[in-house]
Each structure stands twice: as C-alpha cells, then as structure tokens.
Design brief:
about 240 residues, mainly alpha
Length: about 240
Amino acid sequence: MTGFAPADSRGRCPPIGLRTPGVCHTFLMSLVRPSRTRDLIELILGYGAVVGVIWTPEPLQRMLSPMVLVLTLVVVLARRPSRDDLGLGWRGFVRSLWILPAALALSALSLFAAAKGGTLHALYKGDFVHISGYVLWTIYQQFLLQDFFMDRLLRLLPHQGAAVTLAGTLFAAAHLPGLALTAATLVWGMVSCALFRRYRNLWALGLAQGVLGLCFAVCVPDSLHHHLRVGLGYLRYRSVQPVP
C-alpha cells in the first residue's frame, strides 16, 4: 500500500525522485484547506486596517477607505466562495425576509416612543442620495462582518457562540467612541451574526441594519452620536460643535 510522502520540517515536499506515488499530502492540504494561521493573520490585518482608517484624519481617510474596502473584498473572494456561501444568493432569502418587517416594526415603535419623549428630530442629510448610500454601506458592513470576520472566527474558535460574541464585540468596538452607538451595534452585531448563521443571507440583514440605523439617527439625540460618526470623526465633530 502506497501513501503520501511527508513534508520536511519547513512544510516542503521531498524531491521528485524521493516521493511515493501521488503528491505531498501536507502541501496539497495547505492549498485546499486554509490554515488557522492564515485566518488569524487575515483577521488581525483586516480589522487593523478598518479601525486604522476609522481613526485617520478626514482627507487621508477618503483616500484610504476605498483601498481597504477593495482589499477586504479581494481577500474574501480569493477563496472562491459561491454566492450562496457569501450570503448573496437565493439560499435562505425567502426564509429571512421576516427580518426586514420586524426591523420596520421595531423602528415604528421607536419613532413613536421618541416622539412622545421629545427626542425625535430630523435626519441629517435626509435626501435620497445620502439615504440610499447609507443603506448600501450597511449591506457592505454586513458583508464585512459575516464573510470576513465571522467566517474566520468560526474556524479559529471552538464554539459558534464564542465566534458570534467576539464578532459582535469587534463590530461594536469599530463604532467607538460614541457609547450609545457602540452599545446598539454590540446587540445588533451579535443578533445579526446569529441570524446569518441560521439563514445564510445578507440582503435582509443589510437592509434591516439600514432601517435600524436611520431610526437610531432620528430617535437618539444627535449629541450622543454626532450624525452616526465613529472614530476620529466623532471626536472632531464634538470639538467643532460642542454638546450644549
């Protein structure tokens, strides 16, 4: 019975003449099954790049943001996932549609409560271009959260619950230093990860996040979230327009 020749201490296959029939098993599996080390490196570098851009001054941030978004997209697509794997196909789409009306119902209740409590206010830049752009951004946020971060955490951590909790925590931490928005995104981050694990579809989650985000923006006093800004933008906004 013939087998695969083992790789040497550096993970290299032996010379051609010394190999048993077939290919080096270790080398083959390293190509087919990405290593935990690669997952960890991509996770650290990807999250570091996102947070780094968030805390970069505005002129430079506008140049770096598209680069980071394209980079994370390339890293995800490099493993050649299918549309269903990414959550962009039809799998789970119909079953997940209840998420959007649920978000709309929660938003309606929140608007009613904010109106009664006197915190309801107009949306900053409430024109169609800004609203549609924001919703597209929330869909991409779900892509990053689920297909980049959650996907790697599931392979790195032994339990799904730990991966969901850590993914939600990383998602919330990216929304610092505004505590109100950070708390809201902590809850939504974990809920959306759990829902994605069940339905494997991004569309309803991304649209629901857009609805909930817009609702949060008009129901919570602007002094607490500074037009939903995060990172350095939150601090710079406060320094220019202090909270009364």
